[in-house]
Amino acid sequence: CEISASLVWLAPMFFGHSGLHIDGDALTWPSVIASLMLVVLSVITKIGAVSLFPPAAGLNGRQRLSIGALLQCKGLMEIVAATILHEQGMISEFAFASLMVLAVISTVLTGPLFRLAAPKVSGSTAA
Hints:
127 residues; mainly alpha; globular
């Protein structure tokens, strides 16, 4: 499939290219702390929204938490938006560095958060 082959080769190059635009002087402790605060706010907001307004009727608490955890995986969109805003001069170097760190951290957190929240499946495991 042409699309999947393109994604396999081009997506990592885009991430790397975008990451190279981070000014090393802007990646300071305040920008890392700002990123961590944004991650905490993002996790609470997404899980809270899915818990209060579930996307389907009849979802139990663990299922809602699982969906909220999966919403964390937004790295590509965040990086695209931050790159466009930065190239247009609409956000500072500090904000760009913070958003890039936020994108990486929130994407990395998706798997572990989902494994913690996912409903446990009973029965035999598939071979």
